[in-house]
Amino acid sequence: MRGGRAMKLTGGLAVVVFAAMGLVVIGATDQILPATSEYQAQMRVWLAARATGIVALLVLTAQVVAGIVLSHPEQAKWKQGKRIYPWHEALWIFVLAFLAVHVVTIVVDPYAGVGIGGALIPGMSEYRSAPVAVGVISLYALLLTGLTARYTRFLPPGLWLKLHRLSLVVLVMAWIHGVLAGTDSDALRPLYWGSALSVVAAGAYRYWVVRKRAAHHRQPAALAAAATFREEPHVEPHIEPAPAP
């Protein structure tokens, strides 16, 4: 960012990102530098699928963390919110771009055992059917939360926000998919836990802001009540005189 300007979600940005991802696909499928062996060709496609899936998870994590931070009660008065929001919006394009390459490469990999059916229909994958199904469902849920936030004018007021709050569930499902579907999850354990802890930290910050705000509002009310109590005059109870005998 420079001069207080942040990245904006535009059609031009989307074209650039998807074009870059297209070059990755071309390189990974032996079109630029042919592999010297069948095993190398196989590994190229698998590595492209795995790498883009991991990057998509990390970018999605960054987007969800930014969304949690932006949701705090004082966001409208927070100057940094205007800088973070455009990034939160634009990151969705990057998530989609890396996911598109992830799905395409996993489909064209003849050794993956996923196929186009497994990539689009939950439960149709021959390879680790349940974890892959979780990933497919998370993909559709991601599209739902993203598109409804993008085209709010077509929805009843407030509905997009209720759906958008499911983004955290989408991230959890994508996280489970990555951990259970990957054959190298043990080696990537620090990365997965780092992703999870960053979301927990953002949630803790959000909770702390709410508690701090509630305490800030309670304190003046308590002070005002105490001041009113001190200013009120002490009135002796009225006792009726006893009747004369």
Low-confidence spans: 1-7
Structural class: mainly alpha
Spell out the helices and strands N to C: HHHHHHHH
Number of helices: 8
* Secondary structure: helix percent: 55-70%
Mean pLDDT over the residues: 76
CA distance, first residue to last residue: 94 Å
Q: Give the total of domains.
A: 1
Instruction: Tell the overall outline.
Output: globular
Report the portion of residues in β strands: under 5%
* Radius of gyration over C-alpha positions, nearest whole angstrom: 27 Å
What composes the largest sheet?
none
Q: Main attributes?
A:
mainly alpha; 70% helix; 245 residues; disordered N terminus
Summarize the structure.
By secondary structure, this protein is an all-alpha fold. The protein contains eight helices and no strands. The chain has helices spanning 11-28, 38-70, 81-108, 115-120, 129-150, 159-164, 167-181, 189-231.
Describe this structure in words.
This protein has 245 residues and is mostly helical. The chain has one domain (11-182, 189-229). The chain is 70% helix and 0% strand. The chain has eight helices and no strands. The protein has helices spanning 11-28, 38-70, 81-108, 115-120, 129-150, 159-164, 167-181, 189-231. Helix 1 packs parallel to helix 3 (81-108), helix 2 (38-70) packs antiparallel against helix 7 (167-181) and helix 2 (38-70) runs parallel beside helix 8. The longest helix has 43 residues, at 189-231. The N and C termini lie far apart (94 Å). 23% of the residues are buried.
